Amino acid sequence: MDRALPKRFWTQQRLLLSGGSVLILGLLAYTLFFADRRSKLNVEKDKITVSAVTTGPFEDFIAVTGVVMPLKTIRLDAIEGGYVTDKLVEGGTQVQKGQVLLKLENQNLKLSFLQSETEANRLVNDLQNTRQRLQIERFTLRKTLADLDAQIEQAKDAYDRQVKLFKDKVVSEEDYLRAKRTYERLSGQRKIEIESQKYQEDNARIQIKQLEETLARTQRNVALWQQTLDNLVVKAPVTGQLSSIDVEVGSNINRGQNIGQIDDLNGFKMRVGVDEHYISRVFAGLNGSFEFNGKTHALTISRVYPEVKSGRFEVDMIFPNGAPAGIKRGQSSPIQLELGKAAQATLLPVGGFFSDTGGNWVYVVDKSGKRATKRPITLGRKNPEYYEVLEGLQPSEQVITSSYENFGDNEVLEF
């Protein structure tokens, strides 16, 4: 006889439903509390560059390019203006000091010179005429004084006789007084004549001195005008190579205009362009080096030009041990410019990542080699090969150093 069995609560259907619910809740809990929710991007490892962080001496230098220039370059400026009548030397020619390079013509300068010369000749004639006139006046004054002295002698003799005769009552008092007045008048006139001659002599000396001074000034002006005319013949101020001369026959040149330059080939230097980022760290005395003909040659900064153009400034570097044989003007060469002494540091190879992150973070590859995660770092100095790592990385860690341009804002890269 059949009997009714009690119903079971945990049926197979209920067990399946409960198990599914627990599994879903577990997955939700894992996703909520334990799952990695960071943004990810799959990348191909063979298309990126991975570099190892190392330790070693950090050489504080930058790579720059220098151009060989003469140690001294003399600008050739026109002292006076004019039009070119003759061009005797072309650019690139060796010239000697004093060698004529150009001949100019300036009619206004010639006219001014002739006027000044004419004025000087006129003053010379005036001075000669004045001296002759004054000499003649001296003779006339001496003759007048001699005649006056003779008259005084005669008047004195007559006066002495009248005195004697008047005492003897031979002549009248009127004759005596007349002789006395004549003698006294002539004596007084002689004093006046002497004072007049002295005044005229002093005045003559002043006139001659003034004329001589005016003549001297005019003659100096003539000499200056002559020198100005001489400057119309352009000569080489030093011995060297006339590297350029930018004029042609018939062209007009203004006073002070640059018409070329002469290079002193007794020595060379390097003119180097440096990024303005380093302007506070570059100064005279810093050393550098470059390769030429298979040898390393030393360089030293001798002068810094602080003016910044197009994000760069320039420095002059000299060869402390002498310029290498065979070097030529205009050659360019890469130079290693030292900014400081080498020091032990953590090093990260230079790469394209810096332009995308500014050196503030990098992707660090984990030990499995299957993923890389974003990590903040701090970088210090830079040379052409390495960055100096201050914080955030340890030696032997692997870092993606190629460009991050295609990675977006993803925090994890999976290979």
From TrEMBL:
<keyword id="KW-0472">Membrane</keyword>
<dbReference type="InterPro" id="IPR050465">
    <property type="entry name" value="UPF0194_transport"/>
</dbReference>
<feature type="coiled-coil region">
    <location>
        <begin position="194"/>
        <end position="228"/>
    </location>
</feature>
<dbReference type="InterPro" id="IPR006143">
    <property type="entry name" value="RND_pump_MFP"/>
</dbReference>
<feature type="coiled-coil region">
    <location>
        <begin position="117"/>
        <end position="165"/>
    </location>
</feature>
<keyword id="KW-0175">Coiled coil</keyword>
<dbReference type="InterPro" id="IPR058627">
    <property type="entry name" value="MdtA-like_C"/>
</dbReference>
<dbReference type="GO" id="GO:0016020">
    <property type="term" value="C:membrane"/>
</dbReference>
<dbReference type="GO" id="GO:0030313">
    <property type="term" value="C:cell envelope"/>
</dbReference>
<dbReference type="GO" id="GO:0022857">
    <property type="term" value="F:transmembrane transporter activity"/>
</dbReference>
<comment type="similarity">
    <text>Belongs to the membrane fusion protein (MFP) (TC 8.A.1) family.</text>
</comment>
<feature type="transmembrane region" description="Helical">
    <location>
        <begin position="15"/>
        <end position="35"/>
    </location>
</feature>
<protein>
    <submittedName>
        <fullName>Efflux RND transporter periplasmic adaptor subunit</fullName>
    </submittedName>
</protein>
<dbReference type="Pfam" id="PF25967">
    <property type="entry name" value="RND-MFP_C"/>
</dbReference>
<feature type="domain" description="Multidrug resistance protein MdtA-like C-terminal permuted SH3">
    <location>
        <begin position="345"/>
        <end position="403"/>
    </location>
</feature>
<keyword id="KW-0812">Transmembrane</keyword>
<keyword id="KW-1133">Transmembrane helix</keyword>
